[in-house]
Amino acid sequence: MRPMDAILEDAERLFDFLADTKAPSQPADIILAMGGSDLRVADTAAQAFLEKRAEWLVCTGGFGKDTGGVLPEPESVLYAKRCVELGVPRERILIEDRSTNSGENFRFGKALLAERGIFPRTGIIASKPYMAKRAWATGTKQWPEVCWSVTCQKVGFREYLQHSGDPKLVLNLMVGDLQRLRIYAGTFQAPVEIPGPVWAVYERLAADGYRQFVLPNS
């Protein structure tokens, strides 16, 4: 394995690429909070709901690849509780607690709203910083009727890692996310161009052992 300083430099490049996406500039019909292990996403979702005057906040997520057996309740339930604490009216929150991956976050969230006769045209995705690009790509493919933008915690890689609780898990998740941007392009996600130097970072980090969420034979 390479020196940790070299690994962290590459990880920061990957983080910056994955977090670079279109930020919201206009009010939106809905906020969709992407379930996951980082419960700070709930804070991001609540802030977006209150600032952008959305009609609904959809908290998504059951138990995913990094939360099964770890969280005491589904991701979306924990998110919703936190959003209420932060001032979001409980009656404006919808909970989708069955999804196990990002595609299901959108598909099941869409179905939950459709059951209530709600068909949004604009939406803001609240996500972890390094999930931003893949969240946009997934939402654009899985729920194309909505024009999506993404909001996330405004924080640099080193600070995010410091407060993550499990730096190794973050690096493993980022490597897995970049791989999925490539292999899911056009099927589960809208295509996103990955520059050669960024893919080289992925290959180096995977070779360093950060392969926990890398899909085999891809």
What would the keywords be for this entry?
single chain; 218 residues; alpha/beta; Rossmann fold; 2 domains; 5 strands; 11% strand; globular
Helical/strand content category: alpha/beta
| CATH architecture classification of the largest domain | 3-Layer(aba) Sandwich
Give the domain tally.
2
> What is the H level of CATH, i.e. the homologous superfamily of the largest domain?
HUPs
Rg (C-alpha, Å): 17 Å
Instruction: Tell me, rounded to a whole number, the average pLDDT.
Output: 94
Q: How far apart lie the N and C ends? A: 22 Å
Order of helices and strands: HEHEHEHEHEHHH
- Determine the fraction of residues in helical runs and give it as a percent range: 40-55%
Weakly predicted, low-confidence segments: none
Quick one: how many beta strands?
A: 5
Number of helices: 8
Spatial strand arrangement across the major sheet: 3-2-1-4-5
Beta-strand proportion: 5-15%
The 3D shape can be described as: globular
Describe it for me?
The protein is α/β, with parallel strands linked by helices. The chain has 2 domains: 4-17 and 157-207, no CATH class; 21-152, 3-Layer(aba) Sandwich (Rossmann fold). 45% of the residues lie in helices and 11% in strands. It has 8 helices and 5 strands; from the N terminus they run H-E-H-E-H-E-H-E-H-E-H-H-H. It has helices at 4-19, 40-52, 75-85, 102-114, 132-142, 157-162, 167-183, 196-207, and strands at residues 30-33, 56-60, 93-96, 122-127, 147-152. Strand 2 (56-60), helix 3 and strand 3 (93-96) form a beta-alpha-beta unit. Helix 1 (4-19) packs across helix 7, helix 1 crosses helix 8 and helix 4 packs across helix 5 (132-142).
